[in-house]
């Protein structure tokens, strides 16, 4: 992966972001920063605003106030496809594969050069990192299991060579053994220094894969720290994550 | 009814060949128009009720280019490109504003386009019939097959239509752009999140559908009389073709268009007063037996 400019600046920064759906305010001044190589968990209960934060970053729910910066350059206000081209790889919830495309064709649709013209991720490279997909490249994506579809959506977004990967609840609705496989995959990507932001309700899953955590509640950031610090903070765990 | 005459024609090689070739060229024109209609509906989810306009524009643009240059190749290109450009403008400025809106709104926008374009053609070309005439290259003796005569131009038209259909099918199924377009039809928001400019693609697909209609119009120009409003009957027949073949299926459109073409050609002999009725009867039959069309995806 070619290095983004400004090594000192976080890859992704969300600053004082307010988001409304119609008249109702969902996010209240969200602040978030993800540095290069980090795997940041965005934790919070059901309805806390995790998906909305992702949509604000991806340009789907544009913030009314505040800014989203990618390597220091504003992407807020841009159309979603321009945000993607700028280097944000958004993997929405619900595993939205193209069901009537083969696995390989899903990857082909996602293929694009990264923001600096790099094509680090190719289908062949994907198959090395996702050996499970290699064996099913000609299978219709709609016939894959939930876990396989989740891996495919991640792989498809990687094909666009993003600077940061946004994963919205990758463990949702999957059997524990499959969740473990997804966790392994995320750790593999982390080992390849892919920068990742994961939204999750599944705190145990996040403690296993993330390097940092930000907790949100009712549309506000209530806590942000390294993952070990969060692991030791029973008060936060009890209060916002109900463990 | 004239069943004796019909039986006589089917039994006579020369009459049979003539009617089949007539049916085929009707079918090929319908195939091109209907695949454009089907492409637009399949990807954008809107019915382009103004589709006949682009057939008409294709014919008139071809006519004008032929008058000006005498080149039939340029006439074909002018018909295809002209209809495509007008289609893109129509999509960007009008149709895109009613996506996802009430069907009645879409109908109204299209109906307005039909009235305005028909009148513009009247103003520019006059309300009277226009004849383009057969291009030099095809002013040869017809080819004799089994005692029947097929004009060389008919053979050219069938070849063109089949070639365009094959390129379209390959383009949609085998190229990266085609794969993106099929994905766009299913999940546009996801396609956008992958960095693809979906609005541009919508306009391109709409334009492509209009290019197909315009090409049909240009190909029809040497063998049809041109009148303002000539798109209407073609529109209705291509609706029937799309219903019979299955929305979104190019092979389906081909089979259905040939069926309709042959129904018209032979119906004109056997049931001269009921040819249109036959087409609707055929459509009704298909709708009862296979509601999703002959080759349409069996969903819902
Ligand atoms: N399209 C919408 N219109 C109005 N309100 C919405 C919309 N989408 C979400 N909300 C509301 O916004 C709040 C935050 O929703 P969001 O989906 O961001 O939460 P989340 O943290 O992702 O929750 P989950 O863990 O259930 O995915 C919720 O109260 C939800 O009801
Ligand atoms: Mg969510």
From TrEMBL, chain A:
The keyword Repeat does not apply. Pfam families: ABC_tran (PF00005). Residues 9-243 form the ABC transporter domain. This is ABC transporter ATP-binding protein. Keywords: Amino-acid transport, ATP-binding, Nucleotide-binding, Transport. PANTHER family: ABC TRANSPORTER ATP-BINDING PROTEIN (PTHR43820:SF2), HIGH-AFFINITY BRANCHED-CHAIN AMINO ACID TRANSPORT ATP-BINDING PROTEIN LIVF (PTHR43820). Gene3D superfamilies: P-loop containing nucleotide triphosphate hydrolases. The lineage of its organism: Bacteria, Pseudomonadati, Pseudomonadota, Alphaproteobacteria, Acetobacterales. Belongs to the ABC transporter superfamily. SUPFAM superfamilies: P-loop containing nucleoside triphosphate hydrolases. One of its GO terms (biological process) is L-amino acid transport. One of its GO terms (molecular function) is ATP binding. PROSITE patterns: ABC_TRANSPORTER_1, ABC_TRANSPORTER_2.
Automatic annotation (TrEMBL), chain B:
Its main location: membrane. Keywords: Amino-acid transport, Cell membrane, Membrane, Transmembrane, Transmembrane helix, Transport. It is found in: Cell membrane. One of its GO terms (molecular function) is transmembrane transporter activity. One of its GO terms (biological process) is amino acid transport. The chain crosses the membrane at residues 6-32, 39-66, 72-91, 103-125, 153-172, 200-219, 239-262, 269-289. One of its GO terms (cellular component) is plasma membrane. Belongs to the binding-protein-dependent transport system permease family. LivHM subfamily. PANTHER family: ABC TRANSPORTER ATP-BINDING PROTEIN, BRANCHED-CHAIN AMINO ACID TRANSPORT SYSTEM PERMEASE PROTEIN LIVH. This is Branched-chain amino acid ABC transporter permease.
